[in-house]
Every structure is written in C-alpha cells, then in structure tokens.
Specification:
The structure is a single chain. This protein is α+β, with helices and mostly antiparallel strands and 238 residues long. The chain folds into 2 domains: 75 residues, 3-Layer(aba) Sandwich (Glutaredoxin); 147 residues, Glutathione S-transferase Yfyf (Class Pi), Chain A, domain 2, CATH 1.20.1050.10. The chain contains 11 helices and 4 strands, in the order βαβαββααααααααα. It has a 4-stranded mixed sheet with strand order 2-1-3-4, with helices on one face. The longest helix is centred in the middle third of the chain and has 27 residues. 33% of the residues are buried.
Length: 238
C-alpha cells in the first residue's frame, strides 16, 4: 500500500498544496490504491526534501510529485499520457511551466503576503492543531516572502502580480476552450496538473483577489467542478 504524506483536507480545499492535489488526482485517475497520512510537525521532519508531498512505497520514501508520478507510472504501467500527440505533449510541458514556475508564486503571494490571509493559510496546512502556534506561522510567512522575492514575482506590487496571474488564467482558459478535459475528451495527466492548481485557486479559504478573478472564467470554473465531482465527490458534494 502506498502512503501519501500531505497536509490534511481542510475548509473546501482538497489540499492547500496544488502539488498534493495533482498527485492525489493522479492516484485516483489511475486507480492506484493508497492511504493518506496527514503531515504533522513531527512527520514533516521525515520529508526527503523538506517539502510535501512525498510517498512511502516499496520500502522507500520518494519526494516530488513528478518523480512520484513517474515512478508509479512505470510500476503500475499507467497510460494517462500515452495517447497525447506530439503537440499535446508540448502543450502539457508549456502548461506545467506556466503553472508550477509562475502561477504558483502568484498563489503564494496572495496567501502569504497580504496581512489578513496568512493565518488562514497556516490553518489550512496544519489544521486546528496549529492554533496558538503563531511563531511557527510567522516563520513560514517570512520564508515564503523571502522565496517570492528571490523568484522575482514578489518584488512587484499586488496589482501587477494580479495582472500577471490573470494572463496565466487567460492562457489556461484559451487552451481549455469548450473541451471537457484539458487536452481532449478523455481525462489525462494534464488534468491532474491543471485541476490541482485550479482547485487551490477557486476554493482558496482566504477568498483573495486571485480567487475572485479566477471564478469569473466560466469554462475554468465549470471544468474545476466537473473534475472535482468526478474524482473527489466527498469534497465536491459541498
């Protein structure tokens, strides 16, 4: 049995981490049995690279959503991306860069930098057992702000960052169009990625500016509801 280590399910989110939602969607889409182990401060110390998610399988710990997906794809002969054309494979790579190397940092900005948002974000990561542990939350906020500035996006003001993130959403919306799934009529690896990020944006418990902007895209909102109802009915029955 695969053990998936990630923050607990809180609020209306599948997971506060889009990488965790991406991986768990893959597991469900590929019908791979697994069990979740909510991360605590104690278990987080075992994270192979100091981040979530990670899994324990075959007697070893594997970090990073992509490395895990590649390992499990080989182990279970998963075919979620086998039918992609060369063009679709290129679109998947471009989308992954857009989401994981740009929009991700926009999500982080609106969760951590705005004064009223970061305490809710902390609760989303460690749930109610973090109540009263303000110093840890402050440390996480400080670290996130530092990383955002190092990336570069965090050096802009909120208005500029929101504009840049809307451009990412414009691109996702144009790629999706009126398709049922991101790259066609059948769910695939790209949907694990895209849904992982859209769920985190659409249902962010802080209800920040990026969330409100994303909810105005009808096709993205409907896609998110469709994917959520299909793969996470226990959450999307809200």
């Amino acid at each position: 049995m695969i053990t998936l280590y990630q923050p607990p399910q809180t609020f209306d989110l599948i997971n506060i981490s889009p990488f965790c939602t991406k991986l768990e969607t893959f597991l469900r889409m590929a019908n791979i049995p697994y069990q979740c182990e909510p991360v605590s401060m104690k278990t987080f110390m075992r994270a192979p690279n100091g981040k979530v998610p990670w899994v324990e399988v075959d007697g070893k710990a594997i970090p990073d959503s992509d490395l895990i997906i590649n390992y499990l794809t080989d182990k279970y002969v998963v075919t979620l991306s086998k039918g992609y054309s060369e063009e679709n494979s290129a679109l998947l790579t471009a989308t992954q860069r857009l989401l994981e190397e740009h929009l991700y940092w926009g999500i982080g900005y609106f969760r951590w930098v705005e004064t009223t948002n970061w305490p809710i974000t902390v609760l989303s990561i460690f749930a109610p057992n973090m109540l009263g542990k303000k110093p840890i939350g402050m440390l996480m906020k400080w670290s996130s702000v530092k990383q955002l500035k190092a990336h570069g996006l965090g050096r802009h003001n909120a208005e500029t960052i929101l504009t840049k993130c809307k451009q990412d959403l414009d691109t996702l919306s144009a790629f999706l169009g009126d398709s049922t799934y991101y790259l066609g009529d059948e769910p695939g690896l790209a949907d694990c990625l895209v849904f992982g990020f859209l769920d985190g944006i659409m249902h962010d418990p802080t209800n920040n500016q990026l969330t409100k902007a994303a909810q105005k895209y009808d096709n993205l909102r409907e896609y998110c509801e469709r994917m959520g109802s299909q793969y996470f009915p226990e959450v999307y029955s809200r």
